[in-house]
3-hydroxyacyl-CoA dehydrogenase
Amino acid sequence: PAGAPDKALAKKITKVGVIGAGLMASQFALLFVRRLQVPVVITDLDQARVDKGVAHIRDEIRALAEKGRISGDEANRLAALIHGTTDRAEFADCDWVIEAVFEELEIKQNVFADFEKIVREDTILATNTSSLSVEKIGAKLAHPERLVGFHFFNPVAVMPLIEVVKAPATNDETLSTAMVVAKNLRKNAVITRDTPGFVVNRVLAVLLGEAMRAVDAGTGFGTVDSALAPLGLPMAPSALLDLVGLKVGAHVLDTHHNAFPERFYRSENLHKLADYGTLLERDAKGKVKGFDKGALKLV
Ligand code: 3HC
């Protein structure tokens, strides 16, 4: 709907704040530090979560160096730019703060309301929500004009797209900054409307929802995967669900179902699997060995 905003309006980013230190957040924290070469501060509910996220980022930096993608010096520099903390005051001088906390509206609303009291009035706030309304997420903000959706895809390092979601209140300066940040991260950015699932998840929810509908009707996961393989999907539905996380997948389907019950499917089985944790069995290196037998018993 919106044209490309004037790049001249974009704000300079000299420090980034990441709220949430889970898998997605730590993957994009690494991308920010690598591509923008600025300090990145990352936080979560407690020190254990922060430490886990930071350890993951450091492992990824080491892996990049081992693959020869970055030099040893660069690896040390990137690692030094990442700082994990539970002290929210360290976000006070961030120009850009992005969250990837649990996909629950009230949690995200409160997170932003809390951090708005800490950051400067001109700090840009971004949400990596996969399908919630950005407008609603900003409902408790004094300045919702500086909030924008900034939606990454799994695996963050590989997938080239970012959906930049313009809520009704998002101003041009915020949108322009988001577009320039995406470009500097070397991603392709598209500006989408603030509708459930934006563009990509709206389409994926059909695919994954219908795959789950077939499973729930008694067709095995393996059969669904094999049946769809000739379509040339980059990943089988089961692998894609496992990659995005079964909890996130179930949540995305629910959000769509709640918005358009006649069009999107809600799978009870997917919720059972989400509680179980995984659908696929992997080896120590994370390579998929096949379906997890315990998970299959649940459906
Ligand atoms: N994490 C990190 N890196 C990964 C990865 C993972 N899970 N899987 C693969 N990669 C990397 C590999 O290390 C490799 O990097 P390298 O070139 O540096 O060695 C590169 O990706 C290519 O890997 P492969 O050779 O194994 O390539 P594949 O051909 O198997 O492609 C893929 C892997 C790119 C992940 C491909 O399967 C794909 O595109 N899958 C679809 C993913 C997708 O649809 N993502 C969107 C999900 S929806 C979402 O995230 C939104 C959320 O809101 C729910």
